Write a sequence for this structure.
């Protein structure tokens, strides 16, 4: 495991102590969890940005009726595949 040292001002240190008390035994545990949460949030945001690039880029447009028919067909196929028909 690699060590990382950080410095925070007194106000932030006190807030950290208050925030971690009920659920975390150590500051390190709390900070690791905060970093994991932040990295996961960034991954989600990246995924959403990537998805947004492709949203609405279909080569052909379909009507609402066509969309409904496609959804119904796929639903029937999935029900059949999983024996739920």
């Amino acid at each position: 495991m690699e060590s990382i040292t950080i410095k925070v001002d007194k106000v932030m240190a006190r807030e950290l102590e208050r925030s971690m008390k009920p659920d975390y035994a150590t500051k390190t545990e709390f900070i690791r969890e905060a970093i994991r949460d932040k990295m996961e949030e960034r991954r989600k945001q990246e995924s959403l940005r990537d998805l947004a690039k492709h949203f609405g880029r279909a080569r052909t447009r379909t009507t609402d009726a066509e969309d409904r028919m496609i959804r119904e067909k796929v639903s029937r196929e999935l029900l059949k595949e999983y024996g739920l028909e």
Summary: The radius of gyration is 24 Å.
